[in-house]
């Protein structure tokens, strides 16, 4: 089964022929015709309803002419701030088709965040959705002297124009504007602002060829999935923010370039229901989501009978053994086949029942959590990348999965390890630099090699293993280098711990800031007749968390072990600024907020 070799070669070669992302979009949208492309829910529909390839093409062309009429000039930057929805892709491509540079912004941004991006990029226009997102973005735009026009997807936002009115006004515009012919592969396509785990976000300059390089390597990877026979049948569920390069490249431009379908999730809170409704075949996610799903599954398992719990645990155990060793004995093989029917198929149905691959990226995935899903029969591929590389650099191959690694480098990627262990990357996927930051660009790219700031090593099969970030390494009082992400990943494996941040730079040992699991807290408080608001003061509850930390310590080396811990006042969230929109903790901000509490854990 699978796609024939000659057809694979033909499809891969297309990426080298397209002059730009909008030229690719126009080709693929014409080829798609009346087939469904973008699926979303609306107040008018009971379930998901599609826009066809032809309808999307017409709307992109209409909006591109509308942008030119609004005064957009070639090279002008336009900020795009919205939740994931069909209009996001339409606006993104239309901006580039009109000769502009797309500047995605997170829907969770504050007015201050938007002001920084508008000012730093020198944007002349803003396209936004509605509600709170539009309110924050439009307020920032109103204070900018550079903004010439604002466009909203929804009514009653106060924007200059509504996208539906532009569609109506441009009904006679059925062909792309002439600007399409003036765009080349090396031109700037977009400015992607980093999610900012540290200081103010920087604008990463990505050319059309950088994103094409990623899309081509993604298709090369997908071809290794034997179940893929017709790319038009593949369905993606888009729920990570499209303003992040990972989702924008892998969840938008790649499926568009391959003729696949895209469903838009209603939000993380409805992801479980959307998975069942949309039945995606490929899904991209970040480790935080897998951690959350792992905790929810284990919490839900507690409500099942002891017999069902044993079946589940045996399924994970045997599935993990098969994934790690590639073999089971005769008795285990018989058990494994039975557990496929009794356990794994039920779990797979909760993910829609059609998944061919789950892809994890954006941060290191805890090995045990990865093997948990692998043990349940879900093929999970861990990848690695950075916005500065458009963004994917490496990924596990379907026929050589090792979740202790992030796989070998992808097609079109050059990779080497520096003498100090830093991962260096070269190739057409690299950014052109940071917008208006030549000194920082020179620091990041030296002699054509991107210095990732990540530490890693290659195994005998050329698979990359990430050990940590250079800047995140904790150096204790004894001079030992410690990976905080590894320790945190082990702590959150326990059902009682939802989030953790490790602290200890220049100190004799490590301590931790812990956010207990809300589900665990509610159940424990109810069963022990304790008020939820007073739970962290309860000695018995504190002992439960202490035992959870002790269990984690058993898996850690002496220098990695947590000696003491304290509770965070609230979870780390995007809303309180302690987590990036891609669900990575903002270590510096958390440390600044809780420094006194953490320092107090060390004896004076």
What does this entry look like structurally?
By secondary structure, the chain is an alpha/beta fold. Among the domains are: 20-32 and 48-184, Rossmann fold (3-Layer(aba) Sandwich); 474-599, 2-Layer Sandwich (GMP Synthetase, Chain A, domain 3). The chain contains 19 helices and 26 strands. The strands form 7 sheets. A 5-stranded parallel β-sheet has the order 4-3-5-6-7, sandwiched between helices. Strands 16, 17, 19, 20 and 21 form a 5-stranded antiparallel β-sheet that branches. A hairpin with a 6-residue loop joins strand 24 and strand 25. The model has no long low-confidence stretch (mean pLDDT 93).
What descriptive keywords fit this protein?
Rossmann fold; alpha/beta; five-stranded antiparallel sheet; GMP Synthetase, Chain A, domain 3; 604 residues
The CATH architecture of one domain comes to 3-Layer(aba) Sandwich
The average pLDDT value, as a whole number, equals 93
- The low-pLDDT segments are none
Secondary structure: helix percent: 25-40%
Strand order of the largest sheet: 4-3-5-6-7
Number of helices: 19
Could you tell me the number of beta strands? Answer: 26
Write a concise synopsis of the structure shown:
This protein is of the alpha/beta class.
SSE layout and pairing:
Blueprint: H1 5-17, H2 21-32, E1 36-41, E2 48-52, H3 53-69, E3 77-81, H4 86-97, E4 101-105, H5 111-121, E5 125-128, H6 131-142, E6 149-152, E7 161-162, H7 163-169, E8 188-193, E9 203-207, H8 208-222, E10 235-238, H9 245-258, E11 261-264, H10 271-278, E12 282-285, H11 287-301, H12 306-325, H13 330-350, E13 357-360, H14 367-375, E14 380-385, E15 392-395, E16 414-417, E17 422-426, E18 433-434, H15 438-444, E19 445-446, E20 449-458, E21 464-469, E22 474-475, E23 481-482, H16 484-491, E24 497-503, E25 510-516, H17 518-527, H18 539-553, E26 562-567, H19 587-599
Helix pairs in contact: 1-8, 2-3, 2-4, 2-9, 3-4, 3-7, 5-6, 8-9, 12-13, 12-14
